[in-house]
Amino acid sequence: MRAVGTVLVLVVLATLVATGARRWRIPAPSLLVIAGLAVALIPGTPALHIAPQTIALVVLPPLLYASAEEMSLRDLKIVWRPVAVLALGLVLASAAAVGVLAVALTPLTAPMALVLGAVLASTDPVAVTALGRRLALPGRVQTMVQAESLFNDATSLVLFKVAIGLAIASSAVSWPKAGGEFFLLAGGGSVIGAAVAGVVALIRARTTDPVLETVIALVTPHAVYVLAEGAHTSGVTAVVVAGVVLGRSGYRLTDARIRLQLQAVYSVVVFLLESVVFAIIGLELPTMVRDLPTGSGAWPLQALALAAVLIGLRVLWVWPLSRVVKPVEGAASWRVAAVVTWAGTRGVMPLAAALSIPLLDDDGTALPGRALVLVLTTAVVVFTLVVQGLSLAPLVNRSGLALEPQDTAREQEHARQQIARAGLDYLDQLADLGAAPEAALDRVRLALDARLRHSLAQDDADQGNGDAPFLQVCQQLRHEVIAVQGTELQGMYDSHQISDSTRRQLQYDLDLEEFGINSGR
């Protein structure tokens, strides 16, 4: 009962803080971590211990899935080379640098220092997505930092398993075996994710019940994760691949009503999970510090040094890469490098990995250094979320990479005009063929010319007592026009005329219009 009460209090606290963050235009993860730290330091606050399975199974899958669905597959095809370099090379280099520094600065053994390096090596997709959601970054830059954090799991997970094997058994490292394990984790996870996504797509294409569709969408990331982990592959990679595949084809699988409902439900789920998990990070740090053995008082300086090394190494790695690959045409390389570097925060996944470190080694004795690894990991996560999170928006604005609101509005207005013209052209074709009553064509054409939904709704109300077959013809025409506009919108996106954010916004507008037609029946 106490656990249930704690969760409810966390939900209320996190919701209040996240709501304030939106009002004050402060990144929610940063403010949530600070709030969690503040609450944990209040005398009498009970110690918080979260099982690693809770984060890995309950929290991570839906957040990863939502992040993967938001990613633009079109932009990913353009930036996959730098993403691969960051997801492989930078992870290995970061793990090695952190391991060497940890041996020099902390009492950790070499195997446990390597464990710490593997835990902190990869950026976190949950934190990166949450921090970047309100930043007006160009699509390719956003995709680069988001895809890197989504696809570096296999690399860090292999390193983590190798390091844990060294720490608990002092066994020799078989690098050919480790390489095979990497391909099993990444390749196997990708295959399972794509296969499950295909099955889910077939089911959703034949389902018209909104409740069942919502349940399928909520269960999918957990099912993918469990299946992949049960097959000893990467559950995270499987969830990411499934999210990317289904996010690409989701608009074809369901109608407007179901898409709107799914978007509303998933927005609530993601908001609550993100709010609670970032608050937990702040709450857990004081508890972990109390569990440290004596002689570990230098952990704040050690964590600060580790964070500085991670950021410095990222600068050295990203700078030459940005000079070779420019996600934004005409942008100075240092601007891209600065933003990509500072967006590489740590978050939920490193914490989940650190919590999964075994308590005992093969001899049955307590694993030395585990408590310090937990504290250093959490401290680095807190540092990156607070320092980088609070300063990322000002950096993006000063870099000149942020998309101006008027530019985004102009692109969306141009796209609206183009899809409206596509709808008018379709009506002209029907008129030439005599395939619909002229009065119905004129009525739908007038609505397209105006592009004002409230005028169309008033028109429906004024003629609500008219001829029922005539109204049905008008509604059917409007459905057909919306389908034509959706096809035109996707074609504009595929031909790189509009950004992914514009495509999503206009598809949402079309869904609202179609839902309004259905509601008026």
Automatic annotation (TrEMBL):
Keywords: Antiport, Cell membrane, Ion transport, Membrane, Sodium, Sodium transport, Transmembrane, Transmembrane helix, Transport
Location within or outside the cell: Cell membrane
Taxonomy of the source species: Bacteria, Bacillati, Actinomycetota, Actinomycetes, Kitasatosporales
Organism: Streptacidiphilus cavernicola
Family (UniProt): Belongs to the monovalent cation:proton antiporter 1 (CPA1) transporter (TC 2.A.36) family.
Transmembrane regions listed in the UniProt entry: 78-106, 112-136, 157-176, 182-203, 234-251, 263-283, 303-322, 334-359, 371-396
Domain of life the protein comes from: Bacteria
Cation/H+ exchanger transmembrane domain sequence ranges: 12-397
InterPro entries linked: Cation/H_exchanger_CPA1 (IPR018422), Cation/H_exchanger_CPA1_bac (IPR004705), Cation/H_exchanger_TM (IPR006153)
Membrane association type: Multi-pass membrane protein
Main location: membrane
Protein known as: Na+/H+ antiporter
UniProt keyword Transferase present: no
Free-text function comment from the UniProt entry: Na(+)/H(+) antiporter that extrudes sodium in exchange for external protons.
Gene3D superfamilies in alphabetical order: 6.10.140.1330
